Amino acid sequence: MQPTMAAAPPLLASHAAVRSLAVSSTASHRGRLEGGYPPQVAALRRGDWVKLICGASFEDAADVRNLSLVYTLAGVDCIDCAADASVVGAVNEGIEVAASIVPAVQRPWVMVSVNDDCRDLHFRKAEFDPEDCPPDCSKPCEKVCPADAIALDRVMIGGKHPQSDHSCLKLEGGVITERCYGCGRCLSVCPYDRIRAMSYIRDPATTAELLKRNDVDAIEIHTTGKGTDMFNTLWSSLGVSVNNVKLIAVSLPDVGDSTVNFMSAIYTTMQSHFQGYNLWQLDGRPMSGDIGRGATRETVSFAVHLASILDRPPGFYQLAGGTNSFTVDCLKKAGLFQSTTSPGAPSSGMTGSQQAFIGGIAYGGYARKIVGRVLRKIPAQFGHARIEDHPDYLLEALQEALTLVGPVKGERWVGAAADFSEGSRAALRWAADNLLHTGDHHLLLLHMIKDPNYEQVETLFWEATGSFLCRCHWSKA
Ligand code: SF4
Ligand code: SF4
Q1: What is the CA angle 197-372-337, rounded to 5?
Q2: Domain named 4Fe-4S ferredoxin-type: which ranges (predicted)?
Q3: Would you state the pLDDT for residue 427?
Q4: Is the ipTM here above 0.90?
């Protein structure tokens, strides 16, 4: 099914703040384009590529559309989604709406995700029959699901009965299949072992058709690292269709000492008939970025492992699996954030010359969580809401998205506090001249109101810091 063209939203005056925020971000990205490469490849070379992962199995088109819109405005380089025509259509619709609000925005590449092996956890759906559930179950599955993919109602069986009589109750509902992305958290919390995981493989023939579309730019092949046979089978089924896209990503876990041999074998297979760019997605701890700080360690450890191996296969390298707001700091501590390859280490075989070893970061569950919180606030009466119809929520969602995209793109938020005095005006001018860099995302101006003890406070502040400037640490969990 081809995507329907998005109706351009009315350009509301209230989109002005969204436009201004997105334009400042876009402008700072544009100043750093490298000649000769598509902007997405230039980002990979610099190490500031950001990919939004909608989820290889997440097929809620309304959410995918809104997420794509918000993260396009935030400046992502790529949006990765399920290899399904309606989901691809939803991503492209989100991108088109973003471009109608901010015409200067960069169109991200659209990537479809497929698997060569049904054991890959990204390609499964939870399933259970609520009729098999004890009616008095406290429904931990519903509470633990990060995608709101389980909805259960406790209902009376015919007529009125006392609430305490569980024999007259039953559960209705179950898994909302299109929202389930296979994280598996419900499986482990069900006290009655009622939930099954149903695995599947994306059909290569359908995928080959998708790759012919003008609005699909890349493919990602998930592989388990347990042998090359299944990869080779999928590769030959896709045939020459792979040459319709600009980039092929291979997502794999760290399988220890055999990882590099496995990657090299796959690279040899791909080289046989593909002329585009290739990327290795280092999948640390799949589908866990929203769980907490520590989830990001595995993908960074994977990167450290590969950085120590000089004969690793050519291509761009990118983190995924457990990535969240701590990933950039973790990469910096490992000395791998936007650092270029060491002399003698391979650069991308497809592009040559020096480039960042880690080309960027893909964000999935965490990216969806921080924007999803805003999407859930849109009043239910609007049904499948188009976020652009609610500019205040769109602005809030964009601010959330930028907390993730901005640090990779190298943008900073600078805060300055001032009052209306001559001294503050001079200080503000000094801060603008000396503290702001090209590409800084925002100057936050805090207006301080003098209190009756202003002189005393000012004196104390000066004595304590030796300066009239206060360094602002701005962070968001
Ligand atoms: S597998 Fe994950 S996303 Fe799917 S229903 Fe269970 S908890 Fe929700
Ligand atoms: S936790 Fe298990 S038994 Fe309880 S409602 Fe969920 S699926 Fe049913």
Answers
A1: 90
A2: 124-155, 171-200
A3: 73
A4: yes
